[in-house]
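Please decode residue identities from the backbone states below.
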């Protein structure tokens, strides 16, 4: 999870070191303007290929700046009690992302709103970035 500025910079420096000059890498971040976390307080049932049901639930606990604290809960016949994991997701604004990339020796070659190369919009839940090592 790349939550802190230091974690993000360290990861980008490591990726840069693995690329040759002019090398590229593609990745996605969450688009904060889409405010996807507002639709996450939900639960639903899914079934595995054998038809066994699993209840999946998501809950947003806190939104603070660009950080969203969430939990995921699973229940089904495999567990004697509900299984809950918690995490923090960062919704980095495009200008902040650009700054991190530039600070670590990258330039943005292209950005899309999805992996099918659709245009980025305010409602695109993703920002897909192709960055080039300078």
């Amino acid at each position: 999870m790349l939550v802190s500025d230091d974690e993000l910079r360290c990861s980008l420096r490591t990726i840069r070191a693995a690329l040759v000059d002019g090398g590229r890498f593609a990745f996605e971040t969450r688009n904060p303007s889409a405010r996807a976390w507002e639709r996450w307080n939900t639960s639903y049932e899914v079934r595995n290929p054998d038809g066994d049901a699993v209840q999946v639930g998501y809950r947003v606990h806190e939104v603070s700046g660009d950080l969203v604290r969430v939990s995921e809960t699973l229940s089904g016949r495999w567990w004697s009690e509900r299984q809950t994991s918690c995490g923090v997701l960062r919704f980095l604004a495009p200008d902040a992302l650009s700054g991190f990339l530039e600070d670590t020796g990258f330039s943005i070659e292209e950005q899309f709103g999805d992996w099918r190369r659709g245009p980025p919009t305010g409602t695109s839940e993703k920002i897909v970035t192709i960055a080039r090592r300078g």
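Observation: The mean pLDDT is 95.
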